[in-house]
Amino acid sequence: MSRNSDLFSRASKTIPGGVNSPVRAFRSVGGTPRFIQRAQGAHIWDADGKRYIDYVGSWGPAILGHAHPDVIRAVQEAAVNGLSFGAPTEAEIEIAEAIVSRMPSMEQVRLVSSGTEATMSAIRLARGFTGRSRIIKFEGCYHGHADSLLVKAGSGMLTFGNPTSSGVPAEFIQHTLVLDYNDLDAVGAAFAKYPDDIACIIVEPIAGNMNLVKPGPGFLEGLRELCTRHGAVLIFDEVMTGFRAGPQGVQGLTGILPDLTTLAKVIGGGMPVGAFGGRADIMAHIAPLGGVYQAGTLSGNPVAVAAGLTTLRLLDRPGFYDTLSERSAQLAQGLQAQARAAGIAFSADSVGGMFGLYFRDTVPTSLAEVSESDTERFKRFFHGMLERGVHFAPSAFEAGFVSGAHDAAIIEETIAIAGEVFAAL
Length: 425
Ligand code: KE4
Hints:
alpha/beta, Aspartate Aminotransferase, domain 1, Aspartate Aminotransferase, domain 2, four-stranded mixed beta sheet, globular
């Protein structure tokens, strides 16, 4: 019995499902989750001492590679001066300045402790700013686990959604419209049906929670135009794509500026930091300035901020993102070549430091197309790679991540291992 199995059965006695976040339980791929003992650079080691090349990277934060010495040192130096004060610190100003100077649409920012807090707060702010209740989200996009966002599309596209979680009363999601990603006509129809009644659109400007799905031509531009025309707030949920898809997130890649942006993951560098921000005239409605209440005991705590601020500064290294993008593309192309050689229906895509792997012939443009992937084959691929020391996301519906520590040799090693696994699929 491996230590992973021992730990998993022991964990399950005191922690629901043995994990503190559901995707970690391997439910969609089967098998025993690996309990990580330590991580360094591109690698993680499990409880049995087995080493893996890691492409989860804590679901995005480990963009520099795990345990970067400068980040660890910054955390240690902050910690000896105290962990949290519940009072303002200079470091919070520095990370706020670092964020707003990098994100083209952000004039002001408020720190929180998770992506969920960021999106929940941004939606409340959009409702408070507009005085409207209805919100639009897209099927397959995940924005954290706030009640009003745990919704799947209703029967008719323009009817209101149904909860995706028990414990969410219908009243809590009655104002949430769920539309198809990339379906701009449906968004136009929603505004036509509910003129002056839609507070905001929240969207992953590149989706990473239905696997990687990019916006179609004109989709983001169309959302921007519709929100401007109807006085609705456009929220880019860049929790995953912020400082990951590129040095200025998707808004930097596209030049399309949202009214509000939510961030987390990279800006904490592995420590709990989230943020929401954007137009100063909207942020002026947040307490203590305005009537939209939002708060957090550990928001902006100096230890988490030290990790995030050091990470952001290290990302400024010349050529960092060019190399990161090259590595992701090298992985995607190499896996595609191996799959083709083995006659496996497979495609892959990448943008910046994130990638998507799909067991279908073509790169998907919607959740429906992602759902046509061969998930059974994905499971066998996932475990074949895991047994050979490569740790991909334990779900066919998640994006993957490379870091600055994934050099060309590590990518080539991964591609070579995949050749063996595809051949056995
Ligand atoms: P957190 O509350 O988990 O920090 O962030 C929620 C969130 C919000 N918005 C986007 C675009 C996100 O990707 C996330 C969280 N992403 C998942 C990965 N698919 C976190 C992994 C997990 O749930 O354990």
